[in-house]
Specification:
about 240 residues; TIM Barrel; two-stranded antiparallel ribbon; 11 strands; about 35% helix; about 20% strand
Length: about 240
């Protein structure tokens, strides 16, 4: 049976040539410090350790456009913090007017972002390629209340994090196209790398991953940060990790 990583027996040669053993505690790999907040419908959400879940509303069946509103409501009931309606504006509008949580949408262009904002979307999820266009980035910032970098691969989270830090926002990870088994591992890895919003087709699964990872992140925050009173600035060593 393999020896657990945190209780591994280190066997080495002593000064006299005899073997000696000692318990060596493996170091915990650092995770990025996320100092971002998100303002959603007038409420400020601290994302230092909290992870939000955006449930995706799929395209309705032909002639069943009313399903969008019903599905959006059911998505919120399953525990979504936001409801993702990445659909044509004519379908987004009715759902956004009855949604009890903020509405988000994945966009591929500045025109898509403008149309989504007019339909009632308050958070747009934008691929990195579009954010690299400075002009489009500037125009989008003046069009939509909240713009978040969106990635589909865990390896892209660090680059997206630099974009998010420049805006004071957070990174979104899209797991909606992944199988359940693959999504669990990728979502956890993305959160560990600094992602703070999951775009998902399975709200309950992603909610469980988000809660477990948030608890781990909170436990690994420096004691000085955890002990800071409400409203007081957190005192943290420059080199510490959250």
């Amino acid at each position: 049976m393999p020896v657990p990583a945190l209780a591994r027996r280190d066997v080495r040669s002593g000064p006299s040539g005899h073997l000696s053993s000692a318990d060596v505690i493996a170091s915990v790999p650092p995770v990025p410090h996320v100092a971002a907040t998100l303002t959603l419908e007038g409420q400020v959400v601290d994302l230092s350790t909290r992870v939000l879940v955006a449930g995706v509303v799929p395209s309705p069946r032909f002639g069943r456009e009313g399903e969008v509103v019903a599905t959006a409501t059911a998505t919120v009931d399953r525990g979504a913090d936001l409801v993702d309606i990445s659909l044509p504006p004519r379908l987004v509008g009715p759902a956004s007017r009855v949604a009890t949580v903020p509405v988000t949408a994945r966009v591929a262009s500045l025109d898509d972002a403008r149309a989504a904002a007019r339909a009632g979307v308050s958070v747009v999820l934008v691929p990195l390629a579009l954010l690299s266009d400075d002009r489009a980035d500037t125009d989008m910032a003046g069009t939509v209340a909240v713009v978040l970098p969106l990635v589909d691969q865990v390896a892209d989270v660090p680059e997206a994090r630099s974009q998010a830090e420049r805006r004071g926002t957070a990174v979104a990870f899209d797991s909606s196209a992944l199988s359940s088994a693959a999504a669990i591992g990728c979502e956890a890895a993305a959160i560990a790398e600094g992602c703070r919003l999951l775009r998902t087709g399975d709200v309950r699964r992603s909610r469980r991953v988000a809660e477990v990872m948030a608890a781990i992140l909170a436990a690994r925050r420096p004691a000085a940060v955890r002990a800071a009173p409400d409203g007081a600035p957190a005192s943290e060593d420059p080199g510490s990790q959250a």
